[in-house]
Specification:
Nucleoplasmin-3, chaperone, about 50% strand, chromatin binding, mainly beta, about 130 residues, Jelly Rolls, nucleus, 4-stranded antiparallel beta sheet
Length: about 130
């Protein structure tokens, strides 16, 4: 896993994360935190994720609306995206910092995971319901 970080501001309103299409790996980009950083004004800062749908049309989806006085930080719990993906500051002047990680899964690794025997899986503790 590689750490990823970028900052969106009034002068740099977008950041595109691309991978080499030629390599024979699957790439996953996981967004963990979006937060306002030093120098942000108390205004709405809307961050969009811009990608492409199955018909190769551009779609933009807002993932965060941050405001210094009420929500300066949003945890996205490793929101998974498929590169290429663009992050865009649709409203506000930032600075907004995005942090996450980039995971590269080599295709030959995927076949090794299928060989895991069922005995190994039985060692895992049972999942307990969350305490409310």
């Amino acid at each position: 896993n590689l750490l990823l970080g970028c900052e969106l501001t009034a002068s740099t309103k977008s950041y595109t994360f691309q991978v080499d299409e030629e390599d024979d790996s699957d790439h996953i980009l996981a967004l963990s935190v979006v937060c306002l950083t030093d120098g942000a004004k108390d205004e709405c800062n809307v961050v969009e994720v811009v990608g492409r749908n199955h018909e190769n049309q551009e779609i933009a989806v807002p993932v965060a609306n941050l405001k210094l006085s009420c929500q300066p930080l949003l945890s996205l719990d490793n929101f998974k995206l498929q590169p290429p993906v663009t992050f865009r500051l649709a409203a506000g002047s930032g600075p907004v910092h995005l942090a996450g990680w980039h995971r590269i899964m080599h295709r030959e690794d995927a076949s090794l995971e299928d060989d895991v025997s069922e005995e190994d899986e039985e060692d895992l503790p049972p999942i307990k319901p969350a305490k409310k």
